[in-house]
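Section 5: illustrative case.
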């Protein structure tokens, strides 16, 4: 297995506490080897990010048994990590979410706008990058092929 041009950059995130993760637990992309992953870049005071969060959670709930994983990467541009944790609590988000403390993941994934979601197949190749709000319908359409 060589690394291809579309291989998603590896990263590790210290996550917020939620029903599936302990605060400060380290989650790496490679933990989800063989599983399709959506990496969602967001921050709490971004209105379109807030809008799509419940749809991302609903999609995760619907497809997690099929192997779909979601990782939320919070940009510390305008909000603190504490605000991120509050947001996760308020919205009942259960997938892995944590702050990009040194903005390295944002750089590696060339994130220019928020929200941005990067869709990875089971081999963690980048299938597509979506800038802007995702609805449950759109997610359905994009996730289907990843689960093939």
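Designed sequence:
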């Amino acid at each position: 297995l060589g690394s291809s041009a579309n291989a998603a950059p590896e990263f590790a995130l210290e996550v917020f506490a939620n029903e599936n993760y302990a605060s400060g637990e380290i989650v790496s992309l490679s933990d989800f080897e063989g599983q399709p992953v959506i990496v969602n870049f967001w921050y709490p005071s971004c209105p379109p990010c807030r809008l799509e969060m419940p749809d991302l959670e609903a999609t995760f709930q619907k497809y997690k048994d099929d192997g779909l994983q979601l990782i939320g990467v919070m940009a510390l541009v305008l909000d603190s990590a504490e605000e991120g944790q509050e947001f996760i609590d308020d919205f009942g988000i259960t997938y892995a979410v944590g702050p990009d403390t040194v903005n390295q993941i944002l750089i590696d994934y060339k994130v220019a706008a928020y929200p941005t979601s990067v869709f990875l197949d089971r081999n963690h190749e980048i299938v597509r990058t979506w800038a802007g709000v995702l609805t449950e319908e759109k997610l359905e359409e994009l996730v289907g092929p990843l689960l093939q």
